[in-house]
Amino acid sequence: GKTFVKLHVAYAIAQGRSVLGRRVNRARVLYVSLEGEGAFEKRIKAMEAEYKETEGFFYIAQSMDLFADNEALDNLIEAATGLKITYIVIDTLNRALGRGSENDPGDMGRFISRMDRLRRDTGAHVAIVHHVGKESGRGPRGHSALEGAADLIVEITNGDGVEKRAEITKCKDDASGWA
Fold this sequence. Notes:
Elements: H1 2-15, E1 29-33, H2 37-51, E2 57-61, H3 70-82, E3 87-91, H4 93-96, H5 105-122, E4 125-129, H6 145-149, E5 152-159, E6 162-171
Parallel strand pairs: 1-2, 1-3, 3-4
Antiparallel strand pairs: 5-6
Helix pairs in contact: 3-5
């Protein structure tokens, strides 16, 4: 449910529409879907059918390596800057990491540095969709540097008869725990 929730939130932000019971500031959104290109296009059509088209929502639906491919990162920065994007979603970290390893501290540090560059060079907030580890409640999978670098972590839970839930598990500048 990570992509469905994140896409729903990102589309609402592009429209300046309240989402999950919260007000949002309108922003120009670039959603970078690095897997399931065909299915992603269907999700966009469903969002447009439900909430109408919006001028402030843009997307890229193709694979790219944001870990090692300098040209891919440069092109993403150029596109985001040209469109005056202020909110970027990278979905998912695993696909963006290319040949890098989620578990390697050096690889994760390099990836974080590249996402910092994306944020710095565009002035946009960068949100990364990532998977949880095998054990629920232990945070994101892979090296802990990612969790340390994150300003906000929202965990999406779904299954085993439990209602779908989005819970803030880390927030550097505010209280955690809002669901």
